[in-house]
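Journal club side-thread
Mid-discussion, someone asked how the predicted structure for our own chain would compare to the paper's figures. Pasting it here so we can look after the session.
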Amino acid sequence: MFFVVLGHASGGLIDAGVVPHPDWFRPMFLSIYVVHMPLFFFLSGLFVLGRVERDSTKFVRGMGVSIVWPYFLWGAIQLILGALAAKYTNTPSTGLAHDLLSMPIAPPAQFWFLYALLALHLLSWVVLPRVGAIGLLIVAFVLASLFEQGLIPNLLGQACKMAPYYALGVLLGSTRPFMTWLSSARVVLVSSLLFLGALAVALVVARVTHGLGPRLYGLESASIAREAWGFRSFFAAILATVAICAVFATNEKRLPGWLKFIGQHSLSIYVLHIMCIAGARIVLRSLFGLEDPTLLLPSIVVIGLVVPLIAYIVADRLKIARYVALS
C-alpha cells in the first residue's frame, strides 16, 4: 500500500511537470510499477481457492460488499471532486455525466484494480471447481498472451495483464508446503531472495531505461506504467513478490503495530489516497508555493497514508465504516 501511494504521488508530480529534467522520479516510478501491482494481485489470489471451496456462493456475494460497492461509491465521489477541481488536476474531466455513466465499462483512475480484481475473482469462481488452480494458471497465461496480441478488448486489458500473478498466488496459496516454507524460511534464503529480486527488477528497469533513452524523461506516468507491465517483467516481478512475502511472513511477530494497521485497512487508503494526494499537491503548490519535488513527495505520501486512516477511524467510531466502504 505504501508503494501504491508513493507511485501515485510521484506520478502526479511527473504529470504536473514539477520534477526536473532529467530526473530520478521516472526510474523510481518505473521500479515501483514493475513490482507493486503484481504483488497486490498475487496477494489477492493467495486465499481464493479455500474461499471458493468452502462456500462459492458466499465468495460471490462477498464481492458486492468488498469490491462493487467501494468501486461505485468512491469512484463516483472521486469523479465528482475531480470535475469540481478540473482546472487544478492533472487529468481534467471529460464530462461528469459521461464519466459517471461510463463507470461500468471505464474504471476511473486507481479503481481499475477493483474492476480487474472482480473479473479475476469471477474467473476463479467459474474455473477453479472445474480445472483447479493449475488450470486457472494456464487460462491466465492464455488470456495474457491473447491480450498482448490484441485479441482481447482493452476493457479487460488490466485483468489479463495481471491474471498470471493472481493465478500463481491462487496456486501457491493452495499448496501447504509453500505456505509452510514462507513462514519458516531461513534468514540466508530470505536475504538471497531479496537480493535476487532487487537485482532482477534493476535489470528490467535498466533495460527499459536504455531502450527508451532520453525519451523516458518526456513520458507521463501512464506511459511509464505500460512500459513496466508485460511478460518481459514477469519473472522479476514474481521473484520480488515472493521475496517481499517471505520477509513479512518470517517477521510477522516482529512487525510494528502501525504497519499491521496499515495492512488491515489498506482498502480505506486505496479508495481515498488519490483524492488526498491530489488535494495535498494542489494545496501545497497553490497556497504555500512549495515547488521542490524532494519536499513535495514525502509530504504528499504521508498525507496520502494518514488522512485515509483518520477517515477510517472516524467512520469506525461512528459505526458507519462498513456502510461507507472503508472496512
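Post-session note: The radius of gyration is 20 Å.
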